[in-house]
Amino acid sequence: MSTHYSKPVLVRSVQSIQAADLLPANAGRASRVHALINALGLKDSVQIEAARAATDEELCMFHSAEYVRAVCYAGSDESDFGLVHGCSRFVGMASHVRYAAGGTLVAAEALITGRTRTALHWEGGRHHGRRARAAGFCYINDAVLGILRLQQRFSRILYIDLDLHHGDGVQLAFEHSARVTTLSLHHASRGFYPGTGLACVEGRGRGQRRSINVNLQPGARDGTFTGAYSAVGELVVERFAPDAVVLQCGCDGLAGDPHKVFNLTTDAYAECLRVAMAWARPLLVLGGGGYSHSDCARCWARLTAVACGRGSDVPADVPEHEFLGEYGPGFEMAVDAMRVADENSAESVRAIVDAIAGQLG
Ligand SMILES: [Zn+2]
After folding, report:
1. 342 CB contacts (<8 Å, ≥6 apart)?
2. Within the chain, which residues score under 70 in pLDDT?
3. Distance 187 CA to ligand 1 centre (A)
């Protein structure tokens, strides 16, 4: 275990944080996350590597040239590429796309070269993006690009998605692949975005039974979520024997997120990261959804501490820093669960785990 706690790589730069701050759905979030990481004194416990802007050629490893042209250069027909409604064009869009992708590629390269066993890129994790279409606030699918880059060295990759929403873009990209297994824990139901991820085990052709979904009901508490994650995660790691793991840590399942579907605290995400680190595979950790800036910063700053082996050093109170005023009224690092019922039972979670175990064969 001790070697796995060698300094993780944290990918960020002034430019990449500024670029991420421009995304309308998460405007200003990246600044808060990194200010809290700094305030917790974690800078000396990580190796900071600068995110770079991905090139057109790198974006085209997954995305179509027409789509890259539409996103990065003005003057295309937006409606053809989903650049409407929730995914409208915004000032700085090309910069956001290039740094979100480039940062994840830098993190993947740190694992490929062996500079670290854990690489973190909180501005990544845009899991809904399609080959030629923006979707769900995701203009680029850096998770797919990161997996493709990891494949240069690692033959079998496990992608795990903790976001409240189904990791549909990543599943779709690899549903035919025998080399990538996707596991998404989320809430899925009719009318809830993106509307997929209902079946436990999916996948096509050579990728059959390689797309795994754990669909949890509203109110999921920490024990429900981590219980399902650990049971299914162990099963998948044992059967698939991945050489590297990608963990998308979208934290819109936190109790204080405006979605108010799951009822999680940062304890659940910390436990999921610890379990993934204990699998002792090169680990790429990405961000994702999370629509309360202060709770998202609490979560990812804590996960950064966990990655450094300093999870138990996190203080009870949010330390003094420029955004402290946004953490009131309690100013605590912990977030509380709400007093709502967990619609999942131990039996319902067991039934999901058993169904997946049965179908994985
Ligand atoms: Zn989400």
Report:
1. 219, 220, 221, 224, 263
2. 1-5, 75-78
3. 10
